[in-house]
Amino acid sequence: MIFQWLVFLGTAFVAILASILMVTRKNPIHSALLLILTFLCTAIFFFLLQNPFIAVIQVLVYAGAIMMLIVFVIMLLELEEELHSPL
Questions:
Q1: How many domains is the chain built from?
Q2: Which of 21, 26, 51, 53 is nearest to 37 (CA)?
Q3: For residue 43, which of 37, 58, 69, 73 is within the disulfide window of CB 3.0 to 4.6 Å?
Q4: What is the CATH number of the domain that holds 53?
């Protein structure tokens, strides 16, 4: 019971930290990678709730397919000029 509580608290801390960092990053690739980390933390929450099937679906659908689509679109946009321009 104590182990599950510690895993929950650690995962919650990582999820909150990754979410805050995701919103504050200027580089969209870094934001997308932090969103993947947030999705993986959500899958761990589902696993802690005794629902491993939904956890696997979370990883496959969201962290796998949807995030690869988002990263692919970001790479096709070629945002290099906008990232290096002064504010």
A1: 1
A2: 21
A3: 58
A4: 1.20.120.1200
**DSSP reduced 3-state for 26:** coil
pLDDT tens-digit map of 27-61: 888 888 899 999 999 999 999 999 999 999 988 88
Give per-residue burial for 12-48: e unless 16+ CB within 10 Å, then b: eeebeebeeebeeeeebeebbbbbbbbbbbbbbbbbe
The one-letter amino acid at 30: H
Is there a contact between 42 and 66 (Cβ–Cβ < 8 Å)? Answer: no
Identify residue 32 by its one-letter amino acid code.
Answer: A
Q: Six-digit token pair at 7?
A: 């895993």
Q: Which domain holds residue 42?
A: 11-76
Note whether residue 26 is domain-resident. yes
